[in-house]
Amino acid sequence: MKVFEKIVGWGHQNITARNKSTFEITKESSLTKKGDCIIAVNASKGASELNLDFKQLAKQKDAKISVTIEVDGLIETAIGLGGPVLTFTHPSDLVARMSDFYCGRTLMIKSNKAAIDFSTEFITKIQSPNQKILITLITEINE
Fold first, then answer.
1. Which residue range(s) make up the domain with 44?
2. Could you report the per-residue pLDDT of 79-88, keeping only the tens digit for each?
3. With b meaning 16 or more CB within 10 Å and e meaning fewer, what string describes 42-74?
4. Which CATH number characterizes residue 126's domain?
5. Which of 132, 8, 10 minimizes the C-alpha distance to 72?
């Protein structure tokens, strides 16, 4: 079984994507260079706004979650895990983590990518405030 979730975000001139353990999508519109994990701002959804089917499936014990991010023909994909620890309660943020740390902002744990792992060409494109970012979340479990 698979459930898809679509989100639209935007680039920002202060995106640095230097974080070595997470990447984040946020509904917030402002960004300082200290936010080195953020790869999209002005997102159409935060964790609490994901659809119920997505959240329920993502909370299953064997859930796999993938995040595909498309920018002007460039595609980056990160894969991680869901699980019962996820709460999806944060109103504005979605964070993919390489670790198994979780909180209300956590979209997935054990991600195979952090912000620093996205290509230089990709990061250059998302540093434009006019750059639209298409994000597809997929959660699935094998039945």
1. 2-140
2. 999 999 999 9
3. bbebbbbbbeeebbebbbbeebbbbbebebeee
4. 2.60.120.630
5. 132
- Cα–Cα distance, 11 to 60 (Å, whole number): 32
**Alpha carbon of 95 to those of 106, 140, 143: distances in Å?**
5, 18, 27
Return the half-sphere exposure (C-beta side, CA atoms, 13 A cut-off) of residue 51. 12
In this predicted structure, the answer to whether residue 9 has a pLDDT above a threshold of 90 is yes
Q: What is the pLDDT of residue 142?
A: 84
- Integer Cα distance of 125 and 81 in angstroms: 28
Mean pLDDT on 7-31: 97
Q: How many distinct structural domains can be found in the chain?
A: 1
Mean pLDDT of 89-100: 98
d(CA 126, CA 3): 26
